Amino acid sequence: MTDYAAGTPSWVELSTKDPDGSYAFYSELFGWTATEGSDDFGGYRTWLDGDRSVGGLNPMGEFPAWTTYVATDDAEATAEKAGASGGTVMVPPMDVGDLGRMAVFTDPQGAVIGVWQAGDMKGADKVNEPVSCCWNELHTGDRDGAKPFYEAVFGWRAEDVDMGDEGYTVFHVGDRPIGGAGGRADAPHWLVWFSVVDADATVAKAEELGARCQMGPMDVPTVGRLAVLEDPQGARFGVLKGETPDE
Q1: Residue 182 is assigned to a structural domain of this protein
Q2: What is the value of pTM for the model shown?
Q3: Which pLDDT tens digit goes with each residue over 100-123?
Q4: Among 75, 77, 81, which Cα is nearest to 99's?
Q5: What's the DSSP call for residue 41?
């Protein structure tokens, strides 16, 4: 990826108080490496698969979590829309050197999401391939309450689809699906999904490294085989082996 249209998830970031432990886990699980910590940005590092970036490693977070960042042409305007639509701005728009401009806010239900106005750094180099982000999903008990917020803030089009008793919502930028919403969550949150070659093998390896499997592995028709994990520091993420036309 060399550019991201406004409204498209462009970056994912792991916040942790134990960056060494997090590095040890994900480097073993996914084969990632990371850049050296930058003194200019509080020791922030970039996850790499080979020479391509796949996300960030933030040692300054207050609690362990993966955060989704959505591309925007104007971080100020997007943050203002979030506040006006019932969200709460946690990190006001701020410059990150020449890399870009960011903000973080919650939706009305409390799920955290960020925005990224690109400067020199456009977003992740690698997405939708093994060991990179392939989907971003809102877990909330109030999908109907969440949809108007994201439509107003990002201009997303929400389309409900039939996926079991609870249903599912797919968010679109134009005609392109860019994320979803479903499931139940006592604490609403955005879940980052990573593509893998083998979901069962990934879960087994993650558990050997100290992770806990919270759901799956399980098959979901038209989607693939998936599982939700909690890393040793407590951050949740999903792994997905997507279906192919031959399966």
Answers
A1: yes
A2: 0.95
A3: 999 999 999 999 999 999 999 999
A4: 75
A5: G
